[in-house]
Design brief:
- It is a single chain.
- About 35% of the residues lie in helices and about 20% in strands.
- It is an alpha/beta fold.
- The chain has a single domain, classed as Phosphatidylinositol (PI) phosphodiesterase (TIM Barrel), CATH 3.20.20.
- It has an eight-stranded parallel barrel with strand order 1-2-4-5-6-7-8-9, surrounded by seven helices.
- Strand 2 and strand 3 form a beta hairpin.
- The protein is globular, with a radius of gyration of 17 Å.
- Pfam families: GDPD.
């Protein structure tokens, strides 16, 4: 049965990657939430998607050049709606604290950049481990090296590779004992999904908002649809 992960929270209704979006996804009874985590220059882990802070109000620059106290001063909600002008970039721990009291599956995408690709896997996974999240989350990343490091050091965690839906990439997931592949939805075929499932690999696709596309993903048999529009996905999937 195809399930729904709210992409950056319920981002069709609330500012993306904010506590407001995550709380709304929980209220809507989404199966899971997808989010992004960055490593800042003070070692803090922050929940945000973009490498550059240009979409924040009154902010510019690369996110890894800031400490958390600085980026906490930037609003990430006012451009969505003045109602959310007080929304700030959450601490990763802020989200994890919320999940302890409001359980919902976590799809944690590690935003590994050139300057930290070799040292971001451990702090993120250690933080997840501090909150006993091994059976409540999957860790995804575009960098297979990050996922390999996690499987080596934290084998209890499930990982999914964000990559093209090419057979050689799927074979890589199988060979390296990844639990999932996270490809762009337009590339998916029923045959691809069947091959993945025959090798115990989940197929979790992004970012699917159109009703016809969601239905096609359901017909293909994907495991997870990652969607901005939780309400539409629920309507199509019967949830």
């Amino acid at each position: 049965m195809t399930k729904i992960h709210a992409h950056r929270g319920a981002s069709a209704e609330r500012p993306e990657n904010t506590m407001a979006a995550f709380k709304r996804a929980k209220e809507m009874d989404a199966y899971g939430i997808e989010m992004d985590v960055h490593l800042l220059n003070d070692g803090t882990l922050a929940v945000h998607h973009d490498t550059d802070l240009g979409r924040c109000d009154n902010a510019t620059g690369r996110i890894t050049s800031f400490d958390y106290n600085t980026i906490r001063s930037f609003s990430v909600g006012e451009k969505f709606s003045p109602e959310y002008k007080d929304e700030r970039i959450p601490y990763f721990t802020e989200l994890l604290e919320f999940l302890q009291k409001n359980p919902i599956f976590l799809n944690c995408e590690i935003k590994a950049l050139e300057e930290n690709v070799d040292h971001i896997a451990v702090p993120v996974t250690q933080m997840l481990e501090a909150y006993h999240m091994s059976d409540k989350c999957i860790i995804s990343c575009f960098h297979a090296s990050v996922l390999n490091e996690i499987k080596e050091k934290f084998p209890q965690y499930k990982v999914g590779w964000l990559t093209d839906a090419k057979m050689e990439n799927l074979e890589y997931c199988i060979e390296h004992h990844f639990e999932a592949v996270h490809p762009y939805y337009e590339e998916i075929t029923p045959e691809y999904v069947k091959y993945a499932h025959d090798h115990n690999i989940m197929v979790n696709v992004w970012t699917v908002d159109n009703e016809n596309d969601i239905q096609r993903m359901k017909d293909c048999g994907v495991d997870i649809v990652i969607s901005n529009d939780v309400a539409t996905a629920q309507r199509v999937l019967g949830k």
